[in-house]
Amino acid sequence: MIGLIPALGSFLASMPMTVGNAVLFVAYLQLFGTAFNSLNGKVFNSNTIFRLAAPVLVGISLMNINPSLFKDLPVLIQPFISNGLIMGVFISILLEKIVNWSAFEQQFELKNG
Fold it and tell me: Are 95 and 50 in contact (CB under 8 A)?
């Protein structure tokens, strides 16, 4: 709808990128809260904490890397590799499919009674 009003569209285009990032930050916080609620009942120990830590840390790291470092990669994958949110989600899905987390949880329960 905003694109139909040229004056409004040009005003929003002239806003600094940080304003757009602040708006996205609020949306990401809501997504994070939903994801955090879905973790209720999960067992976390030194082995299974990677379930959360690896995707979050890789995503944050990629968001802080200068996008020009990815210029040698093919143009079609540059936006995906340089996007911390997309790569964090991808790594999370990959870890859930590859790692047998229930085996780690069972080991933890056996050790701790």
Answer: yes
Q: How far apart are CA 38 and CA 47, in angstroms?
A: 19
Q: Rounded distance, CA 88 to CA 57, Å?
A: 8
Note the pLDDT tens digit of each residue in 67-112: 889 899 999 998 888 888 889 889 988 988 888 877 777 776 667 6
The residue ranges of every structural domain in the chain are 1-38, 43-113
CA distances to 23, 42, 43, 46, 77 from 52, in Å = 24, 11, 12, 11, 24
Structure tokens at 11: 């005003």
Q: Could you tell me the pTM of the whole model?
A: 0.58
CA atoms lying within 13 Å on the CB side of residue 60:
6
